[in-house]
Amino acid sequence: MNLENKVVLVAGGSSGIGEQVCYEAAKKGAIVVTCARRIQLIGQVKEECKKLSKKEAYAFQMDITNPDSINRVVQRVKDEVGQVDILVNAAGFGLFEDFLSIDLEKARNMFEVNVLGMMVLTQKIASDMLTNESGHIINIASLGGKIATPKSTVYSATKFAVVGFSNALRLELKPFNIHVTTVNPGPVKTTFFEQSDPSGDYLKRVGQLSLDPTYLGRKIVKTMEHPKREINKPVIMEIAYRFYVLFPAIGDYLAGGLFNMK
């Protein structure tokens, strides 16, 4: 797919991976629509996208946990922008805490943001894609949705859900020429860890395993041009996942030891 003048909607586009996807798509000539709760930040992303693409860009405030907010934004996009060609579900957050001590209200909120809100938005956009029998949905999951580690019980549960949802959705939409890609990154150097690990120690410990969000943004946008089933980065953690499946005892050792840095 040539991204020139294609409409790319990014949920969670105010920072991190979503923000970088916006910029990389704009460089390819896409019409970028960025959505998030933080109106000032998405306004800044919009202006940068306009500079990069030399064409219009859009920013709509949206609360991914509120179906009414999602419905309003989807309708505005239809009225003001047009058909969404590519949807990127990048909204999400995580908390690294022992399950026995975590506030389950936080768990409920994590599922609302990472899973349920994503499903509501995807259903709305995919229904329109179905009419044209064309589109691409990219869901940002996590290697934590393939390899669970201590203190990631709830976060991993949400990302396991995203992986399962994406796998089934891909099969449902394939006959209609709608692609579904699941992105499974390991640790990424973003503001994500300001909430999940305020001490900042985790990113220091993972060192070279952590990914640059700009690099990941480029990989995701390349997949828009050449759709694929999954993106799994870094490679060493993808290899660990394969051990996790083929050799469960070794997988538990890696997940509970080598990759347990929280």
Provide structural commentary.
With 262 residues, the protein is an alpha/beta fold. It is 53% helix and 14% strand. It contains ten helices and seven strands. A seven-stranded parallel β-sheet has the order 3-2-1-4-5-6-7, sandwiched between helices. Helix 3 runs parallel beside helix 4 (104-132). The protein is globular and about 50 Å long. The mean pLDDT is 89.
Structure summary:
The chain has 262 residues and is of the alpha/beta class. It has 10 helices and 7 strands.
| Number of helices, counting only DSSP H or I runs of 4 residues or more | 10
Work out the strand percent.
5-15%
How helix-rich are the residues, as a percent range? 40-55%
The structural class is: alpha/beta
Largest sheet: 7 strands, parallel
Low-pLDDT residue spans: none
Order of helices and strands, N to C?
EHEHEHEHEHEHHHEHH
Rg value: 18 Å
Rounded to the nearest angstrom, the distance between the terminal CA atoms is 40 Å
Total strand segments: 7
Side by side, the strands of the main sheet go 3-2-1-4-5-6-7
What form results from the Cα inertia axes?
globular
Notable features of this structure?
about 260 residues, 7 strands
What's the arrangement of secondary structure elements?
Layout: E1 7-11, H1 16-27, E2 31-36, H2 39-53, E3 58-61, H3 67-80, E4 86-89, H4 104-132, E5 135-140, H5 153-173, E6 178-185, H6 192-196, H7 201-206, H8 213-225, E7 230-233, H9 235-246, H10 248-258
Parallel strand pairs: 1-2, 1-4, 2-3, 4-5, 5-6, 6-7
Helix pairs in contact: 1-2, 1-8, 3-4, 4-5, 9-10
